[in-house]
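TEACHING EXERCISE
Course module: macromolecular assemblies
Task: Read the component lines below, then compare them to the predicted structure of the full complex.
Student: A.B.
Group: 4
Components provided:
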Amino acid sequence: MGIPRLLHVGIKDVSFGEGVTVIEPANIYGCAIGDGSFVGPFVEIQKGVTIGKRTRVQSHTFVCEGVSVGDDCFIAHGVMFVNDLFRTGGASRDPADWKGTSVGSRVSIGSGATILPVTICDDVVIGAGAVVTKDITKPGIYIGSPARFHRAA
Amino acid sequence: MGIPRLLHVGIKDVSFGEGVTVIEPANIYGCAIGDGSFVGPFVEIQKGVTIGKRTRVQSHTFVCEGVSVGDDCFIAHGVMFVNDLFRTGGASRDPADWKGTSVGSRVSIGSGATILPVTICDDVVIGAGAVVTKDITKPGIYIGSPARFHRAA
Amino acid sequence: MGIPRLLHVGIKDVSFGEGVTVIEPANIYGCAIGDGSFVGPFVEIQKGVTIGKRTRVQSHTFVCEGVSVGDDCFIAHGVMFVNDLFRTGGASRDPADWKGTSVGSRVSIGSGATILPVTICDDVVIGAGAVVTKDITKPGIYIGSPARFHRAA
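Instructor-supplied answer key:
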């Protein structure tokens, strides 16, 4: 029988802009969060992430290493970003095997969405529960699993 | 470099019935929770929500403003309710742009389901991982993304 | 107006192997977690669960009663295991109505996946956002809702 090593969530080595609000408990480390942004409770944001200005990251969302999000975005509740496509036949601990995700500005991502490593351009809406598996290069509304273009916004 | 405003989850301005159990940490505010109900950990329930009697809201679930849930319901783990359809071309901060959700009594919603703003009648079962996009007016079992009628219960 | 009973997440009656790390807050009780495994924050692992050696259970994941996971697995973020198929016409509080899930070794399960009660053999990859509704008896990559065989790993 072993004694586990217990660590605790917290805010460590984060570069905050002016006027940011965070609801704790949240696990946020090694990232940058721009002016006027908001981070809800039960959120994890990993190292190397950049979040722009006036962007909201709502409760229960996980933002992994390799993600950048622009300004005036709304990342709703329970959104899961992914950086490891398991291309080595399973999960990899080596960041060289991961891919990044770039989210533009004025992007809204609905609750429960899953975002594989992709590029999403400005002015995009992702529906709740969508699974985004491919780059989105044209503004508009995308829904479903896998997410497909639905209509112009 | 700014200093973030840090708030903390908690239980504020909640009208509890008799015999309610809450597992903390949970973020529950401005809502009403009926006799004998249960709220699991890592749950957020927003203001204006009403939860009936003997209803269970399990861990990791998010219940947004505008939702009412009846009696004897089971809202499983990681269920995300949605009130903003992004109809203005993105997320709106104005509640006038949101739509409510009404869940009847004796409704069970499976883990990982996403519930867009709809009305769900009594005696409905929603499968795990379903995405409910339309009103459900007939008792029975609904599964899939988008959720469709599967069979009578 | 009632006064709710407030309980708090924690680690209770867990059999840990050597070299386990847990990030709190986490709600882990009555289960066994093998040598060198990791449990991220905002995780719940219920009683009777067994987790093998060198397995990672990432943030926001829920592992219900009746689940066993082998060695060298990666359970990503926001994964929801299910044990109640609501076969009685709704949620049941009687464990006799639940079904278990067995996950082999060297299995990677992507973020946001939902795992209904099934058996998953060794050397399987489940894509992010997948909904696994049937047993998986052949190694390989499975994606989608419901999850289907995609290709060999």
